[in-house]
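Narrative of accomplishments. A recurring question from our advisory board has been how the design workflow behaves on a single, concrete structure rather than in aggregate. To address it, we present the structure tokens for one chain from the evaluation set, followed by the sequence designed for it. No filtering or post-editing was applied between the two.
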């Protein structure tokens, strides 16, 4: 039997991608599909807490199995900032301003190691599971490339000469933090967890 699984996102495109990868066993629903238009507060101190706040909100208010993701950039020389503040590091949701603030704070800094991290929280039945993916790399001195979003123009993944913003979506998706975390979730779900 097909099992309903909510992805706590409003991004239909993201949900369709996961649906494709999961196949027939699951029907992936978005927040909109279940009539949830609440802006679930992301007040946690970690990615895991924020992802968990979102999946738990749906589980508790709608009694539906649910997963949610939370991601961000961790810069070693900035004490792992912007971290959970990645989306509004400069006080705005403007990607360019956020990225410029990171570059400004990194001016003259030689240690430029950083990583993107994604944590997925899955609430299924009475259980709670976490899946994590990271992409290690280094920050450039200036933005390079026009693809992607967020901090992509200043992040050069380990073993590559180009930033995420200089890669096609397909290329980034082969090595990204989000893709790695999602692959773990999909492998777990495909093993039959939760399908009775
Ligand atoms: P979210 O949790 O996926 O919405 O990500 C939060 C914020 O982290 C985004 O608004 C971006 O600033 C940053 N971020 C997360 N993933 C990426 C990525 O793949 N590339 C660039 N920035 C990202």
């Amino acid at each position: 039997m097909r099992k309903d699984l909510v992805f706590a996102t409003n991004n239909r495109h993201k949900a369709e991608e996961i649906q494709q990868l999961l196949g027939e066993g699951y029907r992936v629903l978005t927040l909109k599909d279940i009539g949830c238009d609440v802006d679930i507060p992301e007040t946690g101190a970690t990615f895991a807490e924020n992802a968990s706040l979102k999946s738990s909100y749906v589980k508790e208010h709608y009694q539906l199995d649910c997963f949610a993701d939370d991601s961000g950039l961790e810069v070693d020389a900035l004490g792992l900032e912007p971290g959970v503040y990645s989306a509004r590091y400069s006080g705005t949701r403007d990607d360019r301003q956020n990225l410029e603030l990171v570059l400004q704070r990194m001016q003259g800094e030689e240690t430029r190691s950083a990583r993107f991290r994604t944590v997925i929280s899955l609430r299924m039945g009475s259980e709670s599971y976490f899946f994590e993916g990271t992409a290690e790399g280094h920050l450039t001195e200036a933005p390079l490339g026009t693809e992607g979003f967020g901090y992509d123009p200043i992040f050069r993944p380990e073993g590559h000469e180009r930033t995420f913003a200089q890669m096609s979506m397909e290329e980034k998706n082969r090595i990204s933090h989000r893709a790695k975390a999602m692959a773990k979730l999909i492998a777990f779900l495909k093993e039959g967890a939760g399908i009775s």
